[in-house]
Design goal:
This protein is α+β, with helices and mostly antiparallel strands. It has one domain. It has one helix and five strands. A hairpin with a 4-residue loop joins strand 3 and strand 4. The radius of gyration is 14 Å and the shape is elongated.
């Protein structure tokens, strides 16, 4: 399996199973290797959002890294969509 991982300071983003139009990532605590949430497309907002697991706690570094990851993946998705429309 070709597992894609991006590392943050205290967390890692692991690519989840493929979806037809968007992607999903699991957010994992690097020290305990436990999933603390997921990042997925939120259609109403037309951007990626964070879905935390219940009873999880975050400090400012993790929150910034999660937010930056969501912003980057949203922009990549929009760029890919624009490029595919330009090729038609």
């Amino acid at each position: 399996m070709n597992e894609q991982i991006e590392f943050g300071t205290h967390i890692k983003f692991v690519l989840g199973p493929p979806k037809p139009k968007t992607q999903t990532w699991w957010v994992v605590n690097k020290y305990e290797d436990s999933q603390i949430g997921a990042i997925g497309w939120y259609a109403s907002w037309r951007k990626y959002g964070y879905y935390p697991k219940p009873d999880t706690v975050y400090e400012q570094v993790c929150l910034r890294e999660i937010a930056a990851f969501c912003e980057r993946k949203t922009q990549e998705h929009k760029n890919k969509k624009e490029a595919s429309h330009g090729n038609k």
